[in-house]
Amino acid sequence: MYKGQNHKAPALLLDDYRIFNFKLILILETIFCNQLSGNQKQRNMSKRLLIIDNDTEVLNMMQEALVYEGFEVKTLERADHIFKVIDEYQPDLIMIDYILDGINGGEICHDIKVNPETGHIPVIIVTAYSKVILSLGSYRSDAFLAKPFGLDEMVKLVNKLLASITLQAC
């Protein structure tokens, strides 16, 4: 080995490189591929999003991208007392991971949608399990976002659902 050479195993270096590249791509995608007009960001500033996911890194990336787009974002790693959180925060849209620690996010989505107090709130189920798409009808979700997803795809879906609510209100 040469003096000063990194002594990490090649596999670890490759993993570090992949993680760095993934994060860099997400950041660049947010900056360059998803530029919104000032008016869109202004409209987003009044919109509140609630994101529930037990994967902290995914949760942080989603939050950063959506805050960058002008949304107010609250994140949770657990769905404990979800109706209390919804009542206090009053989100305009909820994104929930399908598989949470010991709980099915689809069932939480269904509970939200059948409740007269919360049924009007759009819910996006986010999952790495593509087979769940077949059963979404029973959960009454408004949309499905498959992991891995692009941040631009996520922002477009959120904007689309929020725009449809605005149109329905007119």
Provide the descriptors you would attach to this structure in a database record:
170 residues, alpha/beta, Rossmann fold, 2 domains, 5-stranded parallel beta sheet, two-stranded antiparallel sheet, 7 strands, globular
Describe this structure in words.
By secondary structure, the protein is of the alpha/beta class. The chain folds into 2 domains: 1-33, no CATH class; 37-169, Response regulator (Rossmann fold). It has 7 helices and 7 strands. It has helices spanning 10-33, 38-44, 56-68, 82-89, 105-114, 136-139, 151-169, and strands at 48-52, 72-76, 93-97, 99-100, 103-104, 123-127, 143-146. It has a 5-stranded parallel beta sheet, with helices on both faces. Strands 4-5 form a two-stranded antiparallel sheet. It is globular. Mean pLDDT is 80; it is low at 8-12.
